[in-house]
Amino acid sequence: MRALAVEDDPRIAKDLHAALSAAGFRVEGTGDGEDAWFLGDTEDYDLVVLDLGLPKLDGLAVLKRWRANGRSMPVLVLTARGTWQERVEGIEAGADDYLPKPFRMEELIARARALVRRTGGHAAALQEAGDLSLDTNRMGVALRGVPVQVTALEYRLLAYLMLHRDRPVPPTELLEHLYGEDDAREANALEAVIARLRRKLGPGIIGTRRGFGYFLEAA
Amino acid sequence: MRALAVEDDPRIAKDLHAALSAAGFRVEGTGDGEDAWFLGDTEDYDLVVLDLGLPKLDGLAVLKRWRANGRSMPVLVLTARGTWQERVEGIEAGADDYLPKPFRMEELIARARALVRRTGGHAAALQEAGDLSLDTNRMGVALRGVPVQVTALEYRLLAYLMLHRDRPVPPTELLEHLYGEDDAREANALEAVIARLRRKLGPGIIGTRRGFGYFLEAA
DNA sequence: CCCGAACTGTCAGCTTGCCGTCAGGTTGCC
DNA sequence: GGCAACCTGACGGCAAGCTGACAGTTCGGG
Question: pTM of the full predicted structure?
Answer without folding.
Answer: 0.54
